[in-house]
Amino acid sequence: MARVLRGVLKAAIIVYAAAILGFVWLTKDLTFATLARDPLFASYSIAVVIYVLGRFVLALFYRPVPDRGYRPTVSIIIPAFNEEEGIIGTIASCLGVDYPAHLTEVIAVNDGSTDGTWERILEAKARWPQLYAVDLGRNYGKRGAMAEGIRRARGDVLVFVDSDSYLDSDAVTAIVQPFADERVGAVVGHAEVRNSSVNWMTKMQQVRYYSAFRVIKGTESMLSGTVTCASGCCAAYRRSVVIPLLDAWEFQTFLGRPATFGDDRALTNRILNRHRVVYQSSARAETVVPEGPKVFFRQQLRWKKSWLRESMQVVRYFWRKNPIAAIFTYASIAFPFMAPFVVLHAVGGRLLGGQPGGLWFYIIGTYAMALLYSLYYAFKRHDGLWFHGMTFVALYMTVLVFQTYWGIFTMRDTRWGTRASTVEHAKIDQSALTALPPEDGSGLVRRGVRLGSAA
Length: 455
Hints:
Strand content: 5-15%
Number of helices: 17
Helix content: 40-55%
Oligomer: single chain
CATH topology of the largest domain: Spore Coat Polysaccharide Biosynthesis Protein SpsA, Chain A
CATH architecture of the largest domain: Alpha-Beta Complex
Radius of gyration: 23 Å
Order of helices and strands: HHHEHEHEHEEHEHEHHEEHEHHHHHEH
Largest sheet: 9 strands, mixed
Mean pLDDT: 86
Shape: globular
C-alpha cells in the first residue's frame, strides 16, 4: 500500500509540475509584451526561467561515478574549533568508514579551542589509538588548521570533514572513485541536514541543501566537472594538486585583509582553474545547520562575502571551461546583482506606479519557480518536508536577496560572525604545537610511505 501511495504522490507531483510549466508557457505572450514596455524586468524574468529550467533538465541526466574498485590512500582531516559537544561523534564516523584501514588515516586538528574540544579529542585518542591528534596551541583560524592537517597528511586523497559533520560508512569509498580520472582535482560529496527535524528553519535548510547539491552541483558536475564550491562538510582533494597551492591559499588576502572564511570555495577556485571538480552524490554526510535566524543570517552573509570575493577570480578564467557551464556560471554571478533592483521594481515600483496587476504576475511567477524546487524534493524524498522549500524562497526574496550589496559594503569585516575565531594570519608555531600520532604500529603517517596511488 505504501508503494502505491508513493506512486500516486509522484504522479500528482508530475501533473502539478507540468501544470506549472504550462502556466509559464501560457504567460509567454504577456512576458514578451512586457519586454517592449519594461525590457529590464522582462529580460530578467525570461533569463531566470531559462536558467532554472535548464538546470533542472540537465540535472535529470546526472549520475554518480560507480564503485570500480579504486582504492587510493586517504587522509581524513577534521579541523575543529569549539565543538566539544559533537567532535567525538564526528571522529567516530570518520574512523568507522568502510574503507581499508591500512589505506586510511584520520587527523583531528584542534584550532585553539576555548572550550573542552581538545579534551574530547584526547578522549577519542584514548578510545581509538589510531587517531592522529593535533593541538595548535592557539587559534589560527580554520584555514590554518586545514593547512596543518594537509602538511601532516600522507594520503594521496585528502578528505575534509567539518567538525559538526558526520560521514556515512561508505562515503570515503564513494568519494574517491572520480579520482581515477586524472583530470579530477577535487570531489564534493552530498550533504544532508542532521538536525532537520528541530524547527521550521532547519527543515527549510534540508530542502535547500538537497536541491542545491542535486540540482546545482549535479548540473555543474555534468558540464565537464565545473563545480564551483566543494563544500567543507564532505569534500576531497588530490594531494598532489593541493600542495603547490597551499601557501598562497593559506595566506590569501583580499582588500588588504586576511581571507579568513570561504576556505572551501577559495581552494576549489584554485583547483578548478586547471582541473575538474565534480559532485559525487553517493558520498553522503550529515551536517548540523543553524537553528535560529541570527546565526543563520550571519552564516549566509559570510557565504555571500566569500562568493563575492571568489567570483572576481571565476570570471577571469571560466570562459575557457565548458561553454554551457560558462553561461550558467556567469548568469549565476550576474543575477544576484540584478535581483535586489528587480524585486524593488516589481514590488515597490508597480505599487507606486499604479500597476498592481504586474505585481501579481511577478508573485505568481516566483511562486511557480519556487514550487518546482519543492516538488523536486517531494519527488525524490518522502519525509514530508517539501513545502519548506517555499519558505526558503520567501526568505530569499525578502531578506537574502539584499545581502549581496550588504556583503560588498562590509567586505573588509573578516569576522566569521558565528564563531570567535581569529581574523589574522600567522605561521603556526611548531614549538607550541602538540602532535600525537597513531600508537598501534600502523597508519600512513608512522610508516611514512605511500601505500597507494591517486595519479
